[in-house]
Amino acid sequence: LREIKILTRFKHENIIDIRDILRVPSIEQMKDVYIVQCLMETDLYKLLKTQRLSNDHICYFLYQILRGLKYIHSANVLHRDLKPSNLLLNTTCDLKICDFGLARVADPEHDHTGFLTEYVATRWYRAPEIMLNSKGYTKSIDIWSVGCILAEMLSNRPIFPGKHYLDQLNHILGVLGSPSQEDLECIINEKARSYLQSLPYKPKVPWSRLFPNADPNALNLLGKMLTFNPHNRISVEDALAHPYLEQYYDPADEPVAEEPFRIAMELDDLPKETLKRLIFDETLRFNHNDNNLPDAM
Q: 31 and 74 in contact (C-beta within 8 Å)?
C-alpha cells in the first residue's frame, strides 16, 4: 500500500513509475494486485556480477542515483533500502530506483512511533546509526547506502559484507577507523557506546589503498558519504554539486517534488480488511485520476 501511494505520486525519470494498476470490479473480487511498470532489462547487482564498470559508467550511474534521491528526499521520503538490486538499468544505461516497500515519510510533525526499531535496509548497506540506535535517523541513511553502492561499483564487491550485526560494525570500523568522541556522543544506546569504547583503536584505511585505480574525485566524494557521524555526512544536494559529477550537474534539470508527503495515518499493523480497502481505493484513484479521494500516507 505504501509503495503504491508513493509511486503513483512520484514523477521522475530516475524513479520507477506505475504505468497501470489492473483493477477488479469490486473489492470482494480483489485477491491480488497487479502493477504494470516500464521494462528495464537488468539491475546494477546483476551488472556488477558480470563486468567491471568504467569510470564514465560509474559517474553516470551515481549521478542518476543521486538525481532520483534528491527528488525522493524533497518529498520527505526516506527510501531505506537502497542497494544494487534496487537500481534498475536498461540497454541505454538509464537508471531507475525501485522497491519502495520499506520507504517511510519523515514528517517532522508526526510522532514516528516504532520508527527506529523497524527493519531497515539490507545489512551490508545499512548506516551505522541504525544499528547503534542513535538519536533518530534522517535522510543521511540513504546517503550512506549510496556510498556503499559507489564503493561496490569501484571494486565489484561489497565494501562492508558483515555476516551479522557485530561483524557489520567491525567491517565499518575496520575501514573508517575508531569513532571520535563527537561520533560517540550521537549514540544514545549506552551499551552500544560502551561496546565501541571498549574496542582497541583502529586507524582509518586510506581510500586510495582500498581503491588504487579509482578517480581521486570519486574517492573524495566516497569519503563524504561514508562518514560515521550522520550529522557530518554529505547531503544529496551537495553530493550532486561535487566535482566528480561536474560534467552532469545541472540544478535546473534536477527536479524536486511539488510538495512533501505528510502522514495522515500509520499504515503499519492495520487490520487486513482495512488495508484491502485502502489498496482498492488506490486502484480507483489511479484508474479514475480522482483527486477528491483523501491523499494520505
A: no
Joined grid coordinates for residue 137: 535517523
The top-level CATH class assigned to 42-260 is: mainly alpha
Q: Are 275 and 10 in contact (CB under 8 A)?
A: no
Domain ranges within the chain, ordered by starting residue = 42-260
> Using CA atoms, how far apart are residues 89 and 91, in angstroms rounded to an integer?
7
Lowest-confidence range among 31-35, 121-125, 263-267? 263-267
Of residues 81, 94, 99, 238, which has the active-site annotation? 81
Is 81 a known active-site residue? yes
Question: Max alpha carbon distance in the chain (Å)?
Answer: 64
Q: What is the C-alpha to C-alpha distance for residues 176 and 179, in angstroms, rounded to an integer?
A: 8
List the end-to-end C-alpha distance of the chain, in Å, as a whole number.
Answer: 9
Q: What is the pLDDT of residues 197-206, one digit of tens each?
A: 999 999 999 9
The arithmetic mean of pLDDT across residues 148-153, rounded, is: 99
- Axis-axis angle for helices 140-155, 55-74 (nearest 10): 170
Q: Is the pLDDT of residue 293 over 60?
A: no
Instruction: Tell me whether residue 31 is exposed, middle or buried, using C-beta atoms within 10 angstroms of its C-beta: 0 to 12, 13 to 18, 19 or more.
Output: exposed
